[in-house]
Design goal:
- There is one protein chain.
- The protein is mainly alpha-helical and 173 residues long.
- It has one domain (18-29, 39-161).
- The chain has helices spanning 2-8, 19-29, 32-36, 44-63, 69-89, 94-121, 124-134, 145-160, 163-168.
- Helix 4 (44-63) runs antiparallel to helix 5 (69-89) and helix 4 crosses helix 6.
């Protein structure tokens, strides 16, 4: 009976502690400067690209502190839950939502790898190259140099933050 009680009893969901951080990441990804100044396309694809880019930068910061393993998973679960809801709202049916989520997770994983390598170099040009391959820009002639500089600065600020500040979502671009 105790197993049944555990399932039926409202308990605290561990990922809920990261919801303020998730909401802050979404808010930051909507910063008009990305679209107005940095050449990111103000489209559904461009907005997804910025959400996943901001999330990737935060996850890479969390990687630096190995104690964030669970928090990284929970933050990623919030991303999946949000994307699932967004897909359903746009009319994607139950039968293919999982397939779409799998693709979105693959995209996030690719960005994590590309950004990880680019940030290791310490040069904005390497990050600009990764962004050129991974972000929907206004047109093909747009160079993401200012976007690379903005995201590297964001990463550097995150690295300077205390872990508790980061987890609370008290962060800025």
């Amino acid at each position: 009976m105790s197993l049944l009680k555990r399932f039926l009893r409202p308990g605290s969901e561990p990922r809920e502690t990261l919801r303020p951080l998730w909401h802050r990441l979404v808010e930051l990804s909507r910063d008009p400067a990305f679209y107005r100044d940095d050449g990111v396309a103000d489209t559904v694809a461009g907005r997804f690209d910025m959400i996943s880019a901001i999330l990737a930068i935060v996850l890479l910061r969390m990687e630096r502190d190995r104690v964030f393993a669970n928090e990284s998973v929970w933050l990623t679960e919030l991303f999946v839950a949000d994307m699932d809801g967004q897909l359903r709202e746009t009319g994607v049916g139950d039968l293919v939502v999982g397939k779409h989520i799998g693709k979105l997770m693959s995209v996030l994983g690719g960005r994590l790898g590309a950004f990880r390598e680019a940030l290791k170099t310490g040069e904005d040009s390497a990050l600009a190259e990764a962004l050129a391959r991974n972000v929907t820009l206004v047109d093909e002639s747009t160079r993401p140099d200012s976007l690379a500089h903005r995201l590297r600065s964001f990463y550097d600020k995150l690295c300077a933050h205390d872990s508790k500040v980061l987890l609370a979502g008290d962060i800025a671009l």
